[in-house]
Amino acid sequence: MSIKLSAPDATLLGGQSTQLTATVSGDSSSSVDWLVNGTPGGTPTAGLISSDGSYTAPAQLNATVTIGARLHQDISVASSLPLEVITPSNVSGQISFAFTLPESARTSAGIYDSKMHLIRTLWSNKAFSAGPHLGIWDGLDDQGNHSTTAQYQVKLLYNNVTYDWGVIGDTSSTLAGPNNWDTQGTFPMDAAMDGSTVITANGYAEGRPNASTFQVADPQSPQAFFNIGQNVQLDFAATDGNLAYFGNVGDGWAGSVAFVLAYDVATRKPYNFPSGVKLANGSYPLGGVIDLDSSATTLTGDSRLHLQTGLAVQKSGKLLAVSHGSYTVPGTSITSLGEEQISLFDKTSGARVGKIAIHDPQRIAFATNGDLWIISGAQVMRLSSVGSSNSVVVRLQGIVKPLAIAVDPSTDDILVADGGVSQQVKRFSRNGQLLSSYGQLGGYADCSPVVTTDRLYLDTTAGNGAGNQQPGTWLSVGDDSSFWVGDRGNDRALHVSASGRYLEQFSFIPMLYTVTADHGDPTRVFADLLEYKVDYSKDLLPGDPDPAKGGNGSWTLAKNWSVCLPSQYTLSMFRATTLSNGKTYAELLNSNSKLTGYLRFELVELPNSGPVRPSGQFLADGQYNKYIDDVGDLAYWKFSQTTIPTAAMTAYKQDLKGETSDGFPAWSDPHVIGSVTSNGIIAEALGPFGFGGWGMSTFPKVSDNGYLITYKTAPVLGGSTFHLGGLVAGGSDWSWKTSPGGNLSTPDDKGTFPEVNSYGGHNGIAALVEGSNVIEGYDGQYGTFSSQWMHWSDDGLMIGQFGHPASGIAPNGTLYPGAAGNIATMASVTVGSDVYLYNSDESYHPGIHRWKIGGLGSIHELNALVPLGQTTVLGTH
Questions:
Q1: Of the candidates 94, 95, 96, 120, the residue with the CA atom closest to the CA atom of residue 109
Q2: What pTM did the predictor assign?
């Protein structure tokens, strides 16, 4: 026989009781006698235990006692276990306290004075097990000063909040990579298909792969082809199945020149043209490139010459063709002069074998018999006897603005991406007969922002695109006559069957800097001017969320608000908000609105139908922008210099009072809702003065418990300060300060702000308020301390810290979940009992990042009022 003892917890608070259990194996009817430190029934100094195993600890014991049990019939059958008894001790000038957690949890604790000002943070985000614990305050405030007030409140916050991450706008089959769109470059500028493989030219890739490949059967799992540094911009791709050829127009940086290079498709290694030339190319020397104009090597930026405008290779013949027409720098109106010719090379040796004089040649494609299709200005023509007579044998009719062409390898049909008022992909026979068209005629020329799979955004006819990806297109045709078309105006590429049926897409949002979420209708989330519809009842999963393609419908691209938007507006959406009247308003930067050197936000409406409706109303007070808050009021912060060197930071609000005659909101005059004043330059440096970072500013929003939040987003170099503060609405001083500065190179998960300037000064982002939750964002631009989110209660105690530095990739070659680079903006909404945080990402995980902050009901606070020098037990007072 044997006895097994168990207790609810290994620790017990002095003066409290706990119930122990003895299980006797072999004879459940046997009774046991209980002992404390070997004494039956215990003693007053060690604690007493009843016949049923209920132990009561002395009120002032700090020791480990041994609880024993033995068979009443046979005292040789016995067992014991240790039980730690803890009790706070009276110490002059200090406060000792005890607390009991019902479950394991993260905790933070602080001391508040009689004005409920947080004067000392004891600890932040520290994990404790379930059961009783002790804490102590040494009587010093955060500055190391002795406290003299008679009574203080001790607060302890505990929680098990969760932080779950996902991405909207990225259809990659995995977010970890390395075979996903996240780890590739910018959105493809061109693509070439051979059999089941598609090869993409990734434009200016910012250190990512310059070229990638994916299988037609799995477009959501691309992989890197090669990376030769940042001095190249691959705009064109072609392949004969053996070699892949790329046209590099250069990225405009010093030392960047245009040339054509090739890679072996099978080995994925560089192919050095025997007749080519060597090129330093920064840290990536190239052994043999062609079509390099040495006279242009000193020209950079917009003065570059000899830029490729098209590339094509014969599959069974020997020719490689490179067109040199007029080249328009993407995203600008700058056009480099063309050379009015197509250069012809031997595709193996790289030797120049001829040229074709032709007006403004652009994209080109070889027919299956070796003829050459050419976009020449606004025409598309077919040349036979290429390199000799160069005879025009076909001119296509019914073309408006040809942008890209590709030949069907099975039928020899020619496909044309036709821009302008067409916005369609048109299929012609080899003799020029129009066979079919894909896409609604005009695309977005009707100015409706609604996005569908048959509305194409191929050029700037209807607008300048939704963000950093300028409208543009490319075509690539497979052996089954299906084709891929680049729809860069919508940040996607579409796969269409030979019969013109939409098959699938891949989509991601590179170079994303601006996100916002509609607090009045949280299902509306914006990346630049792209609007996504979000279903919060469904988890964000990798892959295309289209239910027709096996997805769960968690998000869909709904609208593109760049259509028919006048060119003076930047392609970034700020503060989209649906008001109680059902109307949605937002703020856009208007480049014509410079007042005293500052860009101003203009109020616009996002109507239920039709394009953006500008108001002509600029939301600013001097150099300070105003923002529409969550209920439609205007709110903003302002700095003012009162007396040198004293400065004040004041929160203003203008109440929504109705509509103007043209249907835009009307607001009252400004009134102050809070203000805080520095006590000189040093005090300002050592206080949480501020309300925005390098990419955005925030508006004053009152938390559930009546606080306005301020955030100093810049480091105090060589010093330290508190970076986050809580100001009572209507008050004139901080009630609490937290997020202390420290000399950190990596996050400590305690809410410490690094007092080191990150690259480019991209430090703090903003601090957002959702109810009693405060979310402090830190960018850090790919540093070892970057992509961090500090979650606080609005009384200054920490709830949690999440995110992952975006400094490189994991040892196994994958991307860190939650990491983001060069984060400019963040937004938050509350849906049900959860808070959702959205943030931008330049290129680490290209899409809208979303953090679901769940389990907020697990947040609890224990507290007690206690005089200095006394002890207490925290509870839910």
A1: 120
A2: 0.93
